[in-house]
């Protein structure tokens, strides 16, 4: 079974600064997808960024970028120019690309991001 | 367009009672997922539907939990004889299909409190 680990329960960042969230995962599969979701106090999970394992190029979405290291099974999220609205819980998630494995997301424990004005 | 909606937003029940949680997916989304978010267990998968069938029920914690989906749209998660450990936020998500890196769109969840 796959596992996802987020080693930082909480991270604090000054507004306009950069913060990096760590995520490692364990899998024996070679084809899979990785995601970062944001969960604000409203509880609604919002997709921040996604990465396909077969792509070597790191995904970017505006101020959000990832550092995907497939051999190390690492998938960190960098938030640049942090804004007050970035304050939330962030979850790293894994999904197998194998149809037989189903389509479920396996989540890490989450990292709470605090943004200081 | 409208996103995934869930009802009720909050539910307080007494131990031993049955509860039903409802999920309305985004129109046209064929896949629907249920997850549970609790302090002790984090975010965990419960079940998913493709159309009206449930190929993967592996996450349902006990036979007190069941789910159905009718008309390829609305889904209901039923918990019978609720226990205090069932207290959690129940999240529903939907996606266009299963292939590729499909995004799962989440609803706001139902917070269940079992007294």
Structure description:
The complex is a heterodimer of chains A (117) and B (115). Chain A has 117 residues and is an all-beta fold. Helices cover 0% and strands 51% of the residues of chain A. Chain B has strands spanning 5-7, 10-13, 19-24, 31-38, 42-50, 53-56, 65-69, 75-79, 88-95, 105-106, 110-114. Chain B starts with a strand and ends with a strand. Chain B has 115 residues and is mainly beta. Chain B is built from no helices and eleven strands. The interface between A and B is medium-sized, with 22 and 27 residues.
Q: Over the alpha carbons, how many angstroms does the gyration radius of chain B reach?
A: 13 Å
Distance between the termini of chain B: 37 Å
List the uncertain runs of chain B: none
State the secondary-structure class of chain B: mainly beta
Topology, element by element:
The complex is a heterodimer of chains A (117) and B (115).
Chain A lengths: L2 E3 L4 E5 L4 E3 L2 E3 L5 E8 L6 E7 L7 E2 L2 E6 L4 E6 L8 E9 L9 E2 L3 E6 L1
Parallel strand pairs in A: 2-12
Antiparallel strand pairs in A: 1-4, 3-9, 5-6, 5-10, 7-8, 8-9, 10-11, 10-12
Chain B lengths: L4 E3 L2 E4 L5 E6 L6 E8 L3 E9 L2 E4 L8 E5 L5 E5 L8 E8 L9 E2 L3 E5 L1
Parallel strand pairs in B: 2-11
Antiparallel strand pairs in B: 1-3, 3-8, 4-5, 4-9, 5-6, 7-8, 9-10, 9-11
List keywords for this structure.
heterodimer, A: mainly beta, 12 strands, 0% helix, globular, B: 7-stranded mixed sheet, 4-stranded antiparallel sheet
Quick structural gist:
Chain A has strands spanning 3-5, 10-14, 19-21, 24-26, 32-39, 46-52, 60-61, 64-69, 74-79, 88-96, 106-107, 111-116. With 117 residues, chain A is mainly β.
